[in-house]
Structure formats: structure tokens, C-alpha cells
Amino acid sequence: MQTSALGSAQLCIFHLHKTYVNNGGLGIYIDHSNGVVSRYIHLDKIEVTPGTTVKKGQRIGTMGGSNYVNGKLIRFGYAVHLDFQIRVNDVPVDPLKYYNIK
Which of 13, 53, 54, 101 can bridge 7 by disulfide, Cβ–Cβ 3.0-4.6 Å? Predict the structure, then answer.
């Protein structure tokens, strides 16, 4: 079963990593400005390119279990999952603070 990784911001710019992400396999970093970056790691497939403007809910990739071992991409080195992180000035923060949960 493949599940989409959807962008979480209202409007953002995809900037950084399309490959090696700290041994995390395929990953996307989205710059939301003001030092806020969301990271989607261990993807199987990336569906955007660097410099792409993405909108909330837009499909940006497919969840996977990718990682790198000795510099080689392993597509399903882990069970299928998504590491989702929010970082402010490269410091991890609780991502739930960025959701309007009622």
C-alpha cells in the first residue's frame, strides 16, 4: 500500500534535499520562511523538484522506507513510514503546535 506525503503548509517553497538526508533515504525539506522548515523523510518517491512552489494538501511524494547504507540508496530498508519533522532555526520542535486541532 502506498500513501501520499502531503504538504503541510499553506504556501511554501521546496528548497533542499532530494536525496541523502542524514541516512534517512529520500527526503524533502520545505522552507516556510522565518527559519521554519518541514522535513519529510524515508520517502519511496519524490514528486516535486527543487524550487517548486507547493500548496497545502499538494502531493509531494510517496511514503516509503528508504535509507542509505554506505552511500547506497536502499528503497525499503525500513517498514513503510514517514518521518515528519518541523524545525525552527534547525532545532526540532513539536509539530502539533503547527496544526489547528480542535
Answer: 54
Give the DSSP letter of residue 56: T
81: left (phi over 0), alpha (psi -120 to 50) or beta: beta
Q: Of the candidates 47, 48, 41, which has an alpha carbon nearest to the alpha carbon of residue 81?
A: 41
Q: CA 85, CA 60: separation in Å to the nearest integer? A: 15
| Fold observed for domain 4-98 | Glucose Permease (Domain IIA) (2.70.70)
